[in-house]
Specification:
Number of helices: 17
Radius of gyration: 21 Å
Structural class: alpha+beta
CATH architecture of the largest domain: 4-Layer Sandwich
Shape: globular
CATH superfamily of the largest domain: Gamma-glutamyltranspeptidase, small (S) subunit
Helix content: 25-40%
Strand order of the largest sheet: 1-20-19-15-14-9-8
Largest sheet: 7 strands, antiparallel
Strand content: 15-25%
C-alpha cells in the first residue's frame, strides 16, 4: 500500500521512502523484481539527482547506514575530500568556485554500496540496470516539484550570480535535463569510476578548473567512499546506529543519551515539558559539536563523548524550569533522505546532498552537473579541528540513522536540514520509541528549529504554530525566545521513517513537508 495523506504505507514484502513520488516508484520497481534494499536506494537516489536538483546531485556526497538481520551493519561514508592544492583564503565563500573545494563522492558511494550488496546480500544489480528511471526522467522531462519551486523563489535574487544554473529554474511546464541524461548513460555504460578516472572525469575536472575551483583530475581519482563501523547508543530497548565523525551522528546519539535519563515515555509529547527537554538536550549536545572533525586528521574519542558520566553531567546542567541562553553559529544545508527495506529485512538508510540548496551555484560546462559547496563547512581558523587542509574531509551535517531491536533493523530514519537534522530526529525518535507513534503521525507532528537560519539571523527557537498558543506561551515563560512559524514549514526539514514490526508488517512515510511518499510492495 502507498502512503496517503492520512495513513502510512504498509507492506509485508518491502518498503521505500523518498521526498519525491517518482523516485519512490523507481525504488519500488527494484524491490518488486526482487532487488535488494541497496539496489532500490541507488535507483531512487539516481532519480532524485534529476527530480530534486536543488537538494542533491551527481556533484554531491552521500552517507549510508546498512544493516540486516544477521547482525551485519556498516556505514558507507561517501564524503569528498579537499583538493591537494588549495588557495589561501581568509574566509571561505558559501557560493561560487571557491566554495567548491571538495570532490564529490556520491557516485563512489553507489559503487561501494552495490559491491556490498553483491558480496553480502547476493545482489545482482548494477548501474546499468538501476539508472534507467533517472535517465528517462532527465530525457523525457517531469513537472517541477513544489519544493524546487519554493527554493527557486527563495533564491530568485541570486540566480544571476550562478551562470548556467538558471536552466534549473523552470516554474511551469516540464523540465528536461538532456546533458545530465548523457552523463548518467556514460555511468551506466562504463561504471561508477568513469566519474573519477575516465573521460567523464577529465571533462568534469576541466570544467571545475575553468570555473575557478582548485579541484583537479588527480583529486577526483583519489576520491573514495569509506566503509566503516557505525557508532551506536542504546535508547530504551533500541540500539541506535549513526555514522561516525566527521558526521554529526555523534551529536544525535548524545542528545538521545541525555534524554534517556529522563522519563520521556511519561511526558506528553504535545506538552511544553516535552519540547523544553528536547531543546535543552540539543543545546547540551551541541556544546561539543565543534570538536567533530575528520578522524584521519584529528583524534575522535566517540566512546568518551557518549560515556555515562559525560551524559550525566549534561543532564544535571538542564534546568526543567528554565531555558539555557543560546547564541550559536548555524550550519545551513539541504539534502534528501531516502531509505528502503527489502523482502529479507535488509535495510538501507541514506542521505544525499550538495550541502546548501543549489550547492555552490557552479554548473559544470555541458554536463548538467551542479557541484556542491561542502568546502564552506571548513574553518579557516588554524586552531579549529575543522580547519581546511589538503585531502581533508569537512565537518559533516549528514547523519542518517537506523534502530535495531534484538540485532535486527526496526527503524530507519533521517532528515534534510543541516543543524536541524539532530533536532528533528530528537522529536521523531522520542515519538516513535517512547510514545509508539506510527511513522506518518510522528512526521506530521510539530517540530522546532533552534538558532539562526539563512532566513532569520536571530538566536531564537522557531517552532511550528500547530503546537498551540499554550505551549508557545509556556516555553516563553521558561525563557525560550520563541518564534512561531507556519505548520509543516519547509524550514523544519523533510524527514522519512520506515518502521519494521515484530509481526512482519512494515510501515513507512515521508514528510508531508515534501513531495514524496513511502511505497510498500
Amino acid at each position: 500500500m502507498r502512503q496517503t495523506s492520512t495513513a502510512a504505507a504498509r507492506s509485508r514484502r518491502g518498503m521505500v521512502t523518498t521526498p519525491h513520488h517518482a523516485a519512490s516508484e523507481a525504488g519500488a520497481k527494484v524491490l518488486r523484481r526482487g532487488g535488494t534494499a541497496i539496489e532500490a536506494v541507488v535507483a531512487a537516489g539516481a532519480a532524485l539527482t534529476v527530480l530534486y536538483p536543488h537538494f542533491c546531485g551527481l556533484g554531491g556526497d552521500a552517507i549510508w547506514i546498512v544493516a540486516d538481520s544477521t547482525g551485519r551493519r556498516k556505514a558507507i561514508m561517501g564524503i569528498g575530500q579537499a583538493a591537494e592544492v588549495l588557495p589561501e583564503l581568509d574566509t571561505i565563500p558559501v557560493r561560487g568556485p571557491l566554495s567548491a573545494l571538495t570532490t564529490a563522492a556520491l557516485i563512489d558511494s553507489w559503487g561501494e554500496a552495490l559491491r556490498y550488496s553483491r558480496e553480502n546480500w547476493q545482489g545482482t544489480g548494477s548501474l546499468a540496470t538501476l539508472l534507467g528511471d533517472a535517465i528517462e526522467l532527465a530525457e523525457g522531462g517531469f513537472p517541477v516539484s513544489r519544493s524546487q519551486s519554493y527554493w527557486h523563489e527563495f533564491r530568485n535574487a541570486e540566480i544571476a550570480d550562478w551562470p548556467g544554473v538558471g536552466t534549473f529554474f523552470v516554474t511551469e511546464g516540464t523540465q528536461r535535463q538532456p546533458q545530465l541524461a548523457k552523463v548518467l548513460e556514460r555511468l551506466a555504460l562504463h561504471g561508477h569510476r568513469e566519474f573519477y578516472e575516465g573521460e567523464l572525469g577529465q571533462q568534469i575536472a576541466c570544467s571545475l578548473e575553468a570555473a575557478g575551483s582548485p579541484i583537479r583530475f588527480r583529486d577526483l581519482g583519489k576520491t573514495s567512499a569509506q566503509v566503516v563501523e557505525p557508532i551506536s547508543l542504546t535508547y530504551r530497548n533500541v540500539e541506535l546506529l549513526a555514522p561516525p565523525p566527521p558526521s554529526q551522528g555523534l551529536t544525535t546519539l548524545a542528545i538521545m543519551g541525555i534524554l534517556s535519563k529522563f522519563p520521556m515515555q511519561d511526558i506528553d509529547p504535545a506538552s511544553a515539558d516535552f519540547y523544553h527537554l528536547c531543546v535543552e538536550a540539543v543545546k547540551q549536545a551541541f556544546l561539543d559539536r565543534g570538536r567533530i572533525a575528520d578522524p584521519d586528521h584529528v583524534k575522535q574519542a566517540c566512546n568518551d563523548w557518549l560515556a555515562d558520566e559525560v551524559l550525566a553531567r549534561k543532564v544535571s546542567a538542564i534546568d526543567p524550569g528554565r531555558a539555557m541562553p543560546w547564541p550559536a553559529r548555524f550550519q545551513t544545508g539541504d539534502t534528501v533522505y531516502l531509505a528502503a527495506v527489502d523482502a529479507e529485512g535488509r535495510s538501507a538508510s541514506v542521505l544525499q546532498s550538495t550541502y546548501y540548496d543549489w550547492g555552490s551555484g557552479v554548473l559544470l560546462g555541458d554536463t548538467g552537473i551542479l557541484w556542491q559547496n561542502r568546502g564552506a563547512a571548513f574553518s579557516t581558523d588554524p586552531a579549529s579541528p575543522n580547519v581546511l587542509a589538503p585531502g581533508k574531509r569537512p565537518f559533516y551535517t549528514l547523519n542518517p540513522g537506523m534502530g535495531l531491536r534484538d540485532g535486527k533493523p526496526c527503524l530507519l530514519y533521517g532528515t534534510q536540514g543541516a543543524d536541524g537534522q539532530p533536532q528533528t530526529l530528537t522529536v521523531l525518535l522520542s515519538r516513535l520509541i517512547d510514545h509508539g507513534f506510527d511513522p506518518l503521525s510522528a512526521l506530521d507532528a510539530p517540530r522546532f528549529l533552534l538558532g539562526r537560519t539563512f532566513s532569520d539571523s536571530g538566536d531564537n527557537l522557531k517552532i511550528e504554530e500547530s503546537v498551540g498558543e499554550g505551549v508557545l506561551g509556556a516555553l516563553s515563560a521558561r525563557g525560550h525566545e520563541t518564534i512561531a512559524i507556519p505548520a509543516l514549514n519547509p524550514l523544519s526539514g523533510q524527514a522519512g521513517v520506515i518502521r519494521v514490526g515484530g509481526d512482519g508488517w512494515i510501515d513507512g512515510a515521508h514528510d508531508p513537508r515534501s513531495d514524496g511518499c513511502a511505497m510498500g510492495i
